[in-house]
Design goal:
single chain, alpha+beta, 6-stranded mixed sheet, 5-stranded mixed sheet, 11 helices, globular
């Protein structure tokens, strides 16, 4: 997506500033304001040590219509106890006071180093500066301000028609490491001008997250701060979507799902130190659960991931990962494993047609597909992941320095 091609979403105003939370001095604070009457859906991390802003955002979402977001990068405000909750609440209060809205109408989000208190004196100065910079054209700056170890901004903009009415849908996300979402993405924010009921909005986000951000993994670590929101400003010239069985809902959902999947894949492609983008496809399983169990066993295997980095067609590592995935009554003789279009395994061992040269040709590519055919049913699932490189270790070893 071209940096200048994000369409404005009516009723969404984004402002950023450099509050000096990040050591680099880059912009690190984003405040988003929504037109009154907007509706917001959200999903949050399942990590038991969920960050203070996650705790507060859940409370505020349940008690009041959302009219603003405050997002900082460079500090996660996680593992900070009661002080962290007080700081998150204070940051919301500053936004509420500046915008003239209720405290509970502000949702807070943070990303960065865990275990350090927010630099409140910096936020106190940063909030009015960010709000002063608000504009409907602030999407590009917003995508950059939420980055941590990301090497590029992740943003998409879509315009499409629902029953002849033009609808705009935008999304930004951040994430590069500590990526194994268990409900959402590291941080993701989407907005649309669509006129849609709260029930339909909640279901659309839940369904889209399930097949996008919940299908990616870089390192198997579920963050304390994962969150994803979807806000509809209700300002499009269209009838309200109230029926999940309607063509209008399906049209909206398909656009949302496609955008979320592309954003999720951007996160994987920007995985810390990643040199490979890997699709792990499990086919002909009995259930979605068992397909995902096998896919994650392969996608999370350090031995598979290091072989991918080395471009080494060591198919035995894939076979071993599938074997330890925990499938019940697993018939290994029915299993087939492909690397790209190359058949690696069948009848319980190496395929007679396999050659090292064919496997090597696939492993030399930057985009690789591992396809596992269980032959136990008709269900298929896909997980996207990366390799493990020297740079992954370096980036995380130097993260706080």
């Amino acid at each position: 997506m071209n940096l200048d091609s994000m369409h404005p979403v009516a009723g969404v105003y984004l402002g950023t500033t450099a509050a000096k939370i990040k050591k680099s001095g880059a912009e690190d604070l984003l405040v988003v304001a929504f037109h009154p009457g907007s509706r917001t859906a959200a999903t949050f991390t399942q990590n038991a040590f969920c960050a203070a802003p996650v705790v507060l955002a859940k409370q505020h979402l349940a008690s009041q219509a959302t009219e603003a977001l405050i997002i900082n990068s460079g500090n996660a405000n996680a593992g900070t106890g009661e002080q962290g909750l007080a700081d998150a609440k204070q940051s919301c209060q500053w936004v509420a006071s500046e915008l003239g809205i209720a405290l509970e109408a502000v949702l807070p989000f943070s990303t960065g180093v865990i275990g350090e208190n927010l630099p409140m004196e910096k936020l106190a100065l940063g909030v009015p500066n960010a709000i002063a910079n608000q504009a409907v054209t602030g999407w590009d700056a917003a995508a950059k301000a939420i980055m941590t170890t990301d090497t590029c901004a992740k943003k998409l903009s879509r315009q499409f028609e629902i029953d002849g009415h033009l609808v705009t849908l935008n999304g930004i996300a951040k994430g590069s490491g500590m990526i194994h979402p268990n409900m959402a993405t590291m941080l993701g924010f989407a907005a649309t001008d669509a006129k849609i009921s709260q029930e339909c909005l909640d279901q659309a986000l839940k369904s889209a997250v399930a097949v996008s951000f919940n299908r990616i993994t870089v390192d198997g670590d579920t963050s304390t701060n994962d969150a994803c929101t979807l806000t509809a400003t209700q300002l499009a010239d269209m009838p309200e979507i109230t029926d999940m069985d309607s063509e209008a809902y399906q049209c909206f959902y398909q656009a949302l799902e496609a955008m979320m999947i592309e954003l999720a894949q951007m996160i994987v492609r920007d995985g810390e130190g990643a040199t490979k983008f890997v699709s792990v496809i499990v086919e002909k399983g009995a259930t979605a659960e068992e397909c995902l169990k096998v896919a994650h066993a392969v996608a999370l295997s350090p031995l598979v991931k290091t072989a991918l980095f080395a471009s080494d067609p060591n198919w035995g590592r894939i076979l071993a990962a599938v074997g330890r995935s925990g499938l019940v009554d697993f018939d290994i003789n029915a299993l087939q494993i492909y690397l790209g279009t190359v058949l690696l395994v069948e009848n319980g061992g190496r395929a007679d047609s396999y050659t090292e040269a064919a496997g090597q040709a696939v492993m030399n590519e930057a985009d690789i597909t591992i396809r596992i055919v269980l032959n136990r049913g008709e269900v298929s699932e896909t997980v996207w992941t990366t390799d493990f490189s020297y740079d992954y270790v370096r980036i995380n070893a130097e993260y706080r320095s």
